[in-house]
């Protein structure tokens, strides 16, 4: 027996005029899973996520989150969902604690406000006005607002943009803790290491189409992560893909220049999958 998915995208399509920006995208996210949606700028990630959040209406296809069509979502459903949008305008005049206290009242089983402030690393700034915080600190307020209601499904759209490396690592730990509580998470990110650290599975989207979907350590197919041995000698540069890199190295004569063994990362696999889509956006170029 299969359980009902926490999030279901079934042939989701969004057109603006003649342009299809999300094209027949289907995936399911199981309860408790962390899923990353990856893709270049303009790929259709935010549009997909916003259709699942109920903020945009699909041209065709269906969405379901916690068994509910987000277009018909009510307040009870909203209280079970956490959203960190790509950009948010907060009430700049309120302090960090005030804004979180305000939102905590809306949710039936909200987290403790001060614990949440500490979890996003803003304890020292709890009494500061949000408008006086740095961009990265304001982003942490967005994340705090996303988790304050103890959501069952958390949507994170590029949550760590503007974070310094230390803040990003602290955020990863926070998200691991949120995931360990059983929260289902849909994350979009341009940081492939972030996806690798946090996500169980990922989908790669480009030009509105889902190109690949799998576990983050398997995406791109069985051979995508096969180690590569590279070296140079008098006859030129060599590259061999092999599951036995040590055996290849042992057969080399002398001490070849530039010898390296590389296990392709998620970023390498991503770049080879999206190929020319990364900088090829004909519709925009034509506009
Ligand atoms: N309201 C709109 N009207 C027309 N086109 C739109 C509208 N909203 C988004 N688009 C277009 O849809 C495409 C997908 O945008 P989307 O924001 O979903 O991409 P993304 O993958 O989230 O990109 P990024 O990584 O830059 O945030 C873009 O080409 C964008 O210009």
Main features:
287 residues; alpha/beta; Rossmann fold; 6-stranded mixed beta sheet; 3-stranded antiparallel beta sheet; 30% helix; 27% strand; disordered C terminus; binds adenosine-5'-triphosphate; membrane; ATP hydrolysis activity
Give your account of this protein's structure.
- With 287 residues, this protein is an alpha/beta fold.
- It has 3 domains: 1-80 and 151-222, 3-Layer(aba) Sandwich (Rossmann fold), CATH 3.40.50.300; 90-150, no CATH class; 228-286, no CATH class.
- The protein contains 10 helices and 12 strands.
- A 6-stranded mixed β-sheet has the order 5-6-7-3-8-9, with helices on both faces.
- Strand 8 and strand 9 (209-215) form a beta hairpin.
- It is globular and about 70 Å long.
- The termini are far apart.
- The structure holds adenosine-5'-triphosphate.
- The site of adenosine-5'-triphosphate has 11 residues, from helix 1.
- GO terms for molecular function: ATP binding; ATP hydrolysis activity.
- Its main location: membrane.
- One of its GO terms (biological process) is response to antibiotic.
- Pfam families: ABC_tran (PF00005).
Share of residues in helices: 25-40%
The low-pLDDT segments are 279-287
Name of the CATH class of the largest domain: Alpha Beta
Largest sheet: 6 strands, mixed
Shape field = globular
Mean pLDDT rating: 89
**Strand runs, count:** 12
Assign the CATH superfamily of the largest domain.
P-loop containing nucleotide triphosphate hydrolases
The computed structural class is: alpha/beta
Number of helices: 10
Reading the helices and strands in chain order gives: EEEHEHEHHHEHEHEEEEHEHH
Q: What is the terminal separation in angstroms?
A: 49 Å
């Amino acid at each position: 027996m299969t359980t009902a998915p926490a999030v279901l995208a079934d042939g989701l399509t969004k057109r603006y005029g003649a342009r299809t920006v999300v094209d027949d995208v289907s995936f399911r996210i199981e309860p408790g899973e962390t899923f990353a949606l990856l893709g270049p700028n303009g790929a259709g990630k935010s549009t997909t996520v916003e259709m699942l959040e109920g903020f945009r209406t699909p041209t065709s296809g269906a969405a379901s989150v916690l068994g509910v069509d987000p277009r018909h979502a009510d307040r009870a459903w909203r209280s079970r969902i956490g959203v960190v949008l790509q950009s948010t305008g907060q009430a700049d005049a309120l302090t960090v604690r005030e804004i979180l206290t305000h939102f905590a009242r809306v949710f039936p089983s909200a987290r403790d406000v001060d614990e949440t402030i500490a979890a996003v690393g803003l304890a020292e700034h709890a009494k500061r006005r949000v408008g006086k915080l740095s961009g990265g600190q304001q982003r942490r307020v967005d994340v705090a607002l996303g988790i304050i209601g103890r959501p069952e499904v958390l949507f994170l759209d590029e949550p760590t943009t503007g974070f310094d490396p230390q803040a990003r690592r602290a955020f990863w730990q926070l998200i691991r803790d949120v995931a360990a509580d059983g929260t289902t998470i849909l994350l979009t990110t341009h940081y492939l290491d972030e996806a690798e650290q946090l996500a169980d599975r990922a989908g790669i989207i480009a030009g509105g189409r889902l190109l690949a979907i799998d576990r983050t350590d398997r995406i791109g197919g069985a051979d995508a992560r096969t180690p590569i041995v590279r070296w140079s000698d008098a006859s030129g540069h060599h590259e061999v893909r092999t599951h036995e890199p040590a055996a290849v190295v042992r057969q080399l004569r002398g001490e070849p220049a530039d010898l390296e063994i590389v296990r392709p990362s998620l970023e390498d696999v991503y770049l080879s999958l999206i190929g020319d889509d990364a900088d090829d956006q004909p519709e925009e170029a034509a506009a």
